[in-house]
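Hello,

Following up on my earlier ticket. Below are the two sequence lines again, exactly as submitted.
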Amino acid sequence: MFGTSRAGGAVAESDAKTPRERYRAQVREEVKKHAWEQIATAGASALSLNAIAKRMGLSGPALYRYFANRDELITELVRDAYRSLADTFRARARAGADLADLAHALRGWALDDPQRYLLVYGTPVPGYQAPPDTTQIAAEMMAVLLDAAVAVEPPGAEAAESAAATPLDEHLADHRAWAAENPAPASALRRALAFWTRLHGVLSLELAGHFAGMGFDPARLYAAEVDGLTGR
Amino acid sequence: MFGTSRAGGAVAESDAKTPRERYRAQVREEVKKHAWEQIATAGASALSLNAIAKRMGLSGPALYRYFANRDELITELVRDAYRSLADTFRARARAGADLADLAHALRGWALDDPQRYLLVYGTPVPGYQAPPDTTQIAAEMMAVLLDAAVAVEPPGAEAAESAAATPLDEHLADHRAWAAENPAPASALRRALAFWTRLHGVLSLELAGHFAGMGFDPARLYAAEVDGLTGR
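Thanks for your patience. The regenerated structure is below:
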């Protein structure tokens, strides 16, 4: 149902085969543009298909031919957001990015569009449940991250010497559903999770304005967390 | 204007002097109760005084005698939320809490009422600006946190030996507005900030459901971050 607009307007248009399909893709992109404006001014939970129809000069029923309901629209926005971050991660990884590069890609992606960041990582929209395929995209990102975490692990002998397993390592070794088939050692699982939580910790507080007036530069704090995670 | 209901219903009632004031405080508490229900079901940005009036069997104008507008109501909820966390921190600190105890208090407070946590630390409500006194309450919390961070610093000679100043330390030494008059060393400033961002990182992802299906226990991840922050 959403297959024609996976990565935003440009791809959606070139994927569309007939003029009719192309027109449909264009209208859907326009609806999404209005939706992002609504989210910025009124919040995701106040998203209203009728309000968007009004702004576009369409009747409610006409708009519902493009998105069946609010949740379908939110799903499309969430999917675009996740997909753009996953694509960023994958492209960087293919270009040889290490864990620090991924960290800076995450920060760039977040600061580039705080609304997009907050739709995915901020307060959940009440009554909305993301469909399973967004979980799949999130899993793809964690897979890229985990590979990068494995790459900074010290080699075998050194690792055994330097790091006794922590209680968290022991827990993660037994609870590794999210690592799928990756045979990463527990210390790499731990590093990937710490990467995810520490960097989102800085970003979410920064984007919600909690560092305003504190006087320091959150970019420095972020960089220090990255250094700690990559052993620099 | 808000002085009579600083810490919720009980205090508000006992602070109120006349039956009329007591009644006013009771109605305001009831409005807030309905507001939290609205936030849970529709989101903070969809908060509507008229909808609350309807549920309470009041006219809109009658309700506006208790809260002048939506932002005044949100401010009261934000203030209650911040105040409850600040009171928790202060009470624990007075009872001799160390940094790890404060971490567990933060987690308890967050899990106890995720909506409350997300109103303060989740996606900002579009168009809403918290008043300066909430910043002041946040500063009080950071002060408690900073004292606890200073207390786990290694003593002077050991510290000088073990830790060369990091680039972040140098930055924080010059940008310490948030530490007010506290002469804490930069390493303690860094520890307090890492405490704040790392623990909020775990909590915000956990409460927004991002660990669902990953298979591990977020409490273990949180505990490991606390151990790292307290040098255990």
